[in-house]
Amino acid sequence: MDTWMRFMSSDGGIVFGRVESGYLHEYESLDQPVPTGAVLSTRALTPLAPCAPGKVIALWNNYHALAAKLDKPVPTHPLFLLKPADSVIGAGEPIRRPLSYTGKIVYEGELGIVIGRRCRDASVAEAGDAIFGYTIVNDVTAADLLNESPHFPQWCRAKGFDTFCCIGPAIVSGFEWRHARLVTTLDGVERQNYPLADMVFSPAEQVSLISQDLTLEPGDVIACGTSLGVGSIRDGATVSITIDAIGTLSNTLRAARADTVAQVRSNETTNAV
Question: What torsion, rounded to 10 degrees, do the Cα atoms 169, 175, 178, 181 define?
């Protein structure tokens, strides 16, 4: 297995490469994994989300245990929504509560598939070859917005706020997902602990079937869906999601600043007059 990360250097540039023993062996890019020959100490670098996806495809109802609990039929094709690129943050970065939203914010610990090459109408075998590696995703949701309108479920709005897609800390190629578990803790208390093998669609099946709907580009991420144990995050609480061999993705929910919220509400009142 190889571990891949993305960093910001001291001069503001972005570097990507294979990490080993505290050093980054730089490569051209994720879609052109050609070594540049540069070797940098990670202590002098600032970690970022390990990739910069053009889109994140987030699955719903992709675990047998959760489907059974919700009394939902197992889907015959992946059920998914899109999260925007601006929603992506890396490990250690704060999840920011939207200024105008005071409701429930929910975590969802998920395995993430990182695409390594352009993929369209791929067979399962071709799809497997298109997977660069695997990462961890926290698919954050403003839960009260989902059914705010009785006429239109607002999946993209509820899941698409800036900072609502935590990805990291690394991408691992050669990861054997069938024998791994995902564990989520909230302020150190275990909330999720489930086997990745319980997925309805395997990663290669997900890539193949989704590629029949839209083109997958290098760096795009598929969040494989979550299982039992989803819950809400209090302001100031830290969610940590661990998959052995990939690492731990930790992010803290930051409350909206009171003075900024007051100004937003004042502006809304003024505009309504």
Answer: -30
